Amino acid sequence: MSEGLNLSQTSLTFPLPLLKDTWQVKARSMLKFLGPAFIVSVAYIDPGNFATNISGGSVFNYSLIWVILWSNLMGIFLQSMSAKLGIATGHNLPEMCSKTFSRKINWFFWLEAEFAAMATDLAEFLGGTLGLYLLFGIPMIYAGLLLGALTFLIVYMEKYGQRVVEWIIGTLVAIITIAYTIEVFLAKPDWAQVGIHTLIPSLPNGAAVLIAVGMLGATVMPHVIYLHSQLVQCRNQKDHTEEQKRKHYRMARIDITIAMNIAFLVNAAMVIVAAAVFFRNGLVVDTIEQAQKSLEPLLGTLSSGAFGIALLASGLSSSAVGTMAGQTIMKGFVGLNIPINIRRLITMTPALIIIALGVNPMYALVMSQVVLSFALPFAIVPMLLITSRKDLMGSLVNNRSTKVAGWIITSLIIGLNAVLLYLTFTGSV
To answer: Which residues of 9-46 are buried (b: 16+ CB within 10 A; e: fewer)?
Structure first.
C-alpha cells in the first residue's frame, strides 16, 4: 500500500518541474525575439505626439483619448505587416521595392522617403533640443549640436550589435514611461471619464476634428514602416523554413503588441495629464514650452522636471531611430553605398540648419507633418502590394481578410492625412 501511495504521489508531482521547465524555455525563446518593436515604438511617442496630445487634452478634456487607441491599433497592424515582409523575404521594404518595381519608380520612392526621413529628424531634433533647453537652459543651437553628438553615439553603438541599440532605446522608453507615470500620479485624473472616452468615440466640434487628425498624423510615421522590416533581420536565420518563419512572425507580433501598447499608455497619459491639469484649470496650451512652464506652479517642480526629462528622452531616442531609418532608406531603394557616417550627417543636417537659422519651432513642426502626409502612402501601398504576393511571401502572404483590413486602414490614414494637409495649406492649422 505504501509503495502504491508513493507511486501515486510521484505521478502527481512529477509533471510540475517539467511544466516549469517548459515555461522557462518558452519565456527564453520569446525574449530572444523582443527588441525591434521597442525601437519602432519610439516614433509613436516622439515630440510631435507631445504637441498634439497636450493640445487635445488641454482643449477637449478627455474626449479624444479614443483617437489614441484607434491610431495605436492601426499602427500595430502596419508594423506587423512590415515585420512580416522582412521575415518572409529576408529583405527590408526598400530592398523589396528595388526588386519589385522599376528603377525610375525606385528613384522616386527614394527621394520622397529621404525627404520624409529628414522631416522626421527635424521634428525630433527640435523636441530633443527643446528638452535640453528646458532642463538645463542650453541655447538651442548648442543643444542641437549636443543632441546630434548623442544621436551619433547611440547609432554608432550598432557596431556592437543591434541588441545594444535595443537596450539603449528600451531604457529611454522606460524613462519616458516612468516620467509620465509620475505625471499621471500627480495629476489625479477622473478615471471614470478616462474609461468612457477611451471606449466611446466623440468629436465635440469641428476644431476637435483637426486635433484628432493631427494626433493620427503624429502617430503613424512612414520611416518606421521602412525600418521595422530591417530590424527583424538580425533574428532571421539562414535558410529559414516556412515553419521557422511563421514562428518568428508569431514572436514578432508579441514584441509589437507589448511595445506598441506601452506607447499607447504613454500617449494616453499625455492627453490625461493635459486634461486633468490644463483643461481643469482653464488653460489652453499651444506650445511644449508653455506646457512645461505651466506644470510647475500647478503640480510642482517634480512634475515639470519629469516632463522635461520625458521630452529629452523622446527627442534623443526618436532622433536616433530616425537616423537609423535614413540609413535603411538610402541604401535600400537605389543601392547607394555612401559611407555610414556621411549617411547619418545627410539625414541630420537639415534639422541642425533649421535650428541654427532660428526658425519658429512650431512652424517647422507643422511643415514637417506636411511632408510626412505626402510620404505616408508611398510606404504603405507598396508594402501591402508586396505582402499580398505569394511568390514573394510564401506561407506568410496576406489572406483575404488581412488584405481588406489593410486597404481600409490605408484609405482611412491617407484620407485623414489629406485632411490635415488641406487644413495646413488653408491656414487652419
So the answer is: eeeeeeeeeeeeeeeeeeeeeeeebbbbbbbbbbbbbb
Output 200-208 pairs: Cβ under 8 A, ≥24 positions apart.
Answer: 200/66, 201/66, 201/70, 202/63, 202/66, 203/63, 204/60, 204/63, 207/59, 208/59, 208/60, 208/63, 208/64
Residue 327 in contact with residue 319, Cβ under 8 Å?
Answer: no
The per-residue pLDDT for range 42-52, each reduced to its tens digit, is 888 887 778 77
Query: What is the tens place of the pLDDT at every residue in 346-366?
Result: 766 777 777 777 766 656 665
User: Domain range holding 226?
Assistant: 35-425
Domain count of the chain?
A: 1
Position 261 in a domain: yes
* pLDDT tens, residue by residue, 226-278: 999 999 988 776 667 888 888 889 999 999 999 999 999 998 998 999 898 88
- Burial class of residue 102, CB neighbours in 10 A (0-12, 13-18, 19+): exposed
pLDDT of amino acid 404:
94
What cell numbers appear for 386 in the block? 508586396
pLDDT for residue 14: 45
369 lies in some domain: yes
Burial (CB < 10 A; 0-12, 13-18, 19+), residue 397, is middle
- Kind and range of the H or E run holding 36: helix 36-41
